[in-house]
Design goal:
The chain is about 35% helix and about 10% strand. The protein has about 210 residues and is of the alpha+beta class. The protein has two domains: about 1-85, LigB-like (Protocatechuate 4,5-dioxygenase, Chain B, 3-Layer(aba) Sandwich), CATH 3.40.830.10; about 115-210, LigB-like (Protocatechuate 4,5-dioxygenase, Chain B, 3-Layer(aba) Sandwich), CATH 3.40.830. It has a two-stranded parallel sheet. Strands 3-6 form a two-stranded antiparallel sheet. Strands 4-5 form a two-stranded antiparallel ribbon. A hairpin with a 3-residue loop joins strand 4 (about 195-200) and strand 5. The radius of gyration is 17 Å and the shape is globular. The protein starts with 6 loop residues before the first strand and ends with a strand. The relative contact order is 0.16.
């Protein structure tokens, strides 16, 4: 979900959005019935305002694939309420780190802050099969990301565009990596909890920030 300013979903019963094309029909038949939580949306807006952001609400926004594709596995019955916050694609990693900093009090209030994106994301390099081997440039970036998170090297992460190998090839645009910085800002120390590649160049690496 891409907007110029941080925008918070406020719908009580969001619909499932299929914001992709040319995928198997079975994906378009999946739904995620989880409710929204308008009261939490208000709390998020308050925290962001206190931190100097200018948050906005959207009371019609449904769950796009960045939300429901992981959560349909984690919460298949859709019992856990969800509030979405948009990404600012023309802003910086630092902006999203600060956004995560502002959200960190929610961790003590029983709220899971989940950043959904991709460690590598170049659609022009979509492999021919699910288990196609990853190219060297994707592996090198993915390894650098894991090592830099483990080393707690925040400055290198924030400057990944210049310091990481093949950064622009793995992320021609940055919106799929920005959620990582929100989670980093909210949680701090990170550790990798899952790792694999699909369709060649797509890393499914996942991190927890404690």
């Amino acid at each position: 979900w891409l907007t110029a300013h941080p925008t918070i979903s406020k719908a009580a019963n969001p619909e499932t959005i299929y914001d992709f094309g040319e995928f198997p029909q079975s994906l378009y038949e999946l739904t995620h019935p989880a409710p929204g939580e308008p009261a939490l949306a208000e709390r998020i807006a308050d925290l962001l305002s206190q931190a100097g952001f200018t948050p906005r609400f959207n009371d019609k926004r449904g769950y796009d694939h960045g939300v429901w594709t992981p959560l349909v596995l984690a919460d298949p019955n859709g019992e856990i309420p969800i509030v979405q916050i948009s990404v600012q694609p023309h802003d910086t990693p630092q902006h999203h780190l600060y956004l995560g900093n502002a959200l960190s009090p929610l961790r003590e209030e029983g709220v899971l802050i989940l950043g959904s994106g991709a460690a590598t994301h170049n659609l022009w390099s979509f492999g021919d099969s699910y288990d196609a081997p990853p190219p060297k440039w994707a592996v090198e970036f993915d390894d650098w990301l894991a090592e830099t998170i483990a080393q707690k090297d925040i400055q290198s992460l924030l400057n990944y565009r210049n310091r990481a190998p093949f950064a622009s090839k793995n992320h021609p645009t940055e919106e799929h990596l920005f959620p990582l910085f929100v989670a980093l800002g909210a949680g701090g120390t990170g550790r990798q909890i899952h790792h694999n590649f699909t369709y060649g160049a797509f890393s499914m690496a996942a991190y927890a920030f404690d």
